[in-house]
Amino acid sequence: MGNRKLRYIVILTLAALLMLAACSGSGKSVEELVQEIREDLENAQRLILNAQITADYGDRVHNFTIRYSGNADTGEIAILAPEQIAGVTAEVTMNGMTLVFDGVRLETGSLTDSGLSPAMAIPLLISEWRGGRITFAGFERYGALDTVVLETAVDDSVVQKTWFDSRTLLPIRSEISDGGVLVLVCVFDNVVIE
User: Fold this and answer.
1) 3-state SS of the chain?
2) Is the peptide bond before 123 cis (omega within 30 degrees of 0)?
3) Has residue 181 got a pLDDT over 60?
4) Residue 46 and which of 13, 66, 156, 168 are 20 to 30 A apart at CA?
5) Distance (Å, rounded) from C-alpha 168 to C-alpha 37?
6) pTM, 2 dp
């Protein structure tokens, strides 16, 4: 009976170790992968990506699709959808938490008390990925992908959570919540770090 119990414990331990190794795909710890994500973004000149953004104001929901090229401080947004404003581009700079547009303003109002708008989402996320205060990091399945999840506290009530492909370390999806209420979702594709 004791030998059977020991064998069972060894099998469970090996299974748990195999699952942990399989989650990262590289055998690296979540801390090592988060550090790599942060270093890649810190050393990057710019990030280029498409983002489908859903902004939930409680009484209405707005959907935007944009192409972003830049970093946490400055960049360009090209609006891909909605169709009425597709093709419009705007140069953006970040001065604290205020975005200044060159002649165009893509904003449907603040989602949070701190003034977060859909236009601010990508620069804010890049800033948080690079150096935000981590509240959670771990491995998680997202659809068919193994991912590294990074959650940071933007301020006392706003939290962002992002899923990164554990193989490429590129962002797949981000959620921003205010006081526990989901206010913004970004789904990324065509991500390039230069």
Assistant:
1) CHHHHHHHHHHHHHHHHHHHHHHHCCCCCHHHHHHHHHHHHHHCCCEEEEEEEEEECCCCEEEEEEEEEECCCEEEEEEEECHHHCCCEEEEEEECCEEEECCCCCCCCCCCCCCCCHHHHHHHHHHHHHHCEEEEEEEEEECCEEEEEEEEECCCCEEEEEEEECCCCCEEEEEEEECCEEEEEEEEEEEEEC
2) no
3) yes
4) 156
5) 9
6) 0.80
